[in-house]
Design brief:
Number of strands: 9
Low-confidence stretches: none
Distance between the termini: 44 Å
Strand order of the largest sheet: 1-8-7-2-5-3-4
Radius of gyration: 21 Å
Helix content: 40-55%
Order of helices and strands: HHHHHHHEHEHEHEHEHEHEHHEHE
Largest sheet: 7 strands, mixed
Strand content: 5-15%
């Protein structure tokens, strides 16, 4: 099982290389396969997460995986051009399969606990980020059969911490099934779809989320969404929340408690220049995210796609249940009141923990 994910993730670009003419194609395939294996040889998960070998392993891995994952449609297109009689039917069959036959994204997901907990790439990312979860006593004490809606702020440039976090949630919230709402477009991208499903993501559509809560499944949401992601600025603790009432209403309609969660350190993982921020928040990339729900912000890490090594701490607040006069039928006024209480709770959570985690000089901006 340890080899399944690497073979799937790196199999597509290696196959594309093999389709190229001799001797360039096979040589490129061998080089790529060797490069994919190199990080695992440089650093083993039993070793301390320090030193040049660890840094180099992460640098190679993440600068390989990001282009492969988000460039998977282009890789498949190239395969179709080189061998149309073989790959056009395969791509067509895959599209039919993921859109009609297999739709775990509309149900309970397809979480793979072993992958989330033990995949080399996810373990390395968690260790690189020094990722820690701080779970409140109230959330731990709450009956796992009573669902909660955990709202994480802020989204950050890439929200890669969310993927890495899933492997820690199994132990941090024992017995509680937690699914994460993710943008619909992610389930149409090869490789990205599999990564999302294996780390317990489901489609963010309202009907899908409602069905999950009805089955007493807890949900994790990032209310800021693409808008918050595209507006992220390095070192600025800003959340896009004032008009985001949907997750509050959803919780009230299904008797679920709300749990605020702040991800300290996420806005420091990458840098963005003024020109990049302008393009992200107002230019073509912003319009693309608004129209199609595809967020592709421009930013840079310490080297390419590798983030800076900044500790990330996710602090989970105490759960609270907004009340409404008629059970599960909140009025607009009750939703607004509950949202106001939620924002105040989030501010208190941020202020209560920022000094201990190294952010004493920062203020939370809610827009």
């Amino acid at each position: 099982s340890m080899l399944v994910a690497p073979v799937i993730f790196f199999g597509l670009p290696v196959t594309l290389c093999l389709l190229m003419s001799w001797p360039v194609g096979p040589a490129a395939a061998l080089a790529l396969a060797s490069l994919a294996l190199l990080p695992r040889l440089l650093w083993q998960t039993r070793r301390p997460a320090e030193g040049r070998a660890f840094q180099l392993a992460n640098l190679i891995y993440w600068n390989l995986t990001y282009p492969i994952f988000f460039g998977s449609p282009l890789l498949l297109g190239a395969c179709c051009v080189l061998r149309p009689y073989l790959f056009l039917p395969l791509v067509g069959a895959y599209a039919i399969y993921i859109k009609t036959v297999s739709r775990p994204d509309l149900n309970d997901g397809a979480g793979w606990e072993y992958f989330s907990c033990h995949d080399w790439g996810l373990v390395a990312l968690r260790r690189f980020l020094r990722l820690r979860l701080h779970v409140s006593a109230g959330l731990l004490a709450r009956d796992s059969g009573k669902p909660v809606v955990i709202a994480i702020h802020p989204h950050g440039f890439a929200s890669d911490y969310r993927i890495a976090m899933d492997g820690l949630l199994y132990a941090a919230l024992p017995g509680r099934k937690v699914l994460t709402l993710a943008a619909s477009v992610l389930f149409s991208l090869p490789l990205v779809r599999e990564l999302s499903l294996w780390t317990r993501c489901i489609d963010a559509r309202k009907k899908v989320a409602a069905r999950a809560l009805e089955r007493a499944v807890s949900l994790m949401v990032v209310p800021g969404g693409e808008a918050e992601q595209m507006r992220t600025q390095t070192g600025i603790e800003a959340v896009f929340l004032q008009k985001r009432l949907g997750f509050v209403k959803l919780a009230m309609q299904h008797g679920a408690a709300l749990v605020p969660c702040y991800a300290f350190g996420t806005t420091d993982l990458y840098d963005v220049t003024p020109a990049q921020h302008q393009a992200n928040s107002q230019g073509f990339l912003w319009r693309l995210s608004k129209k199609y729900g595809v967020a592709m912000p421009r930013y840079q890490g310490s080297f390419g796609f590798m983030p800076k090594r900044t500790p990330v701490d996710l602090v989970f607040g105490e759960p609270f249940e907004p009340t409404c006069a008629t059970k599960n039928q909140p009025t607009d006024g009750e939703v607004v009141a509950a949202h106001t209480e939620y924002v105040a709770t989030l501010r208190h959570l941020f202020d209560a923990h920022k000094a201990a985690l190294g952010f004493a000089d920062r203020e939370l901006i809610v827009t």
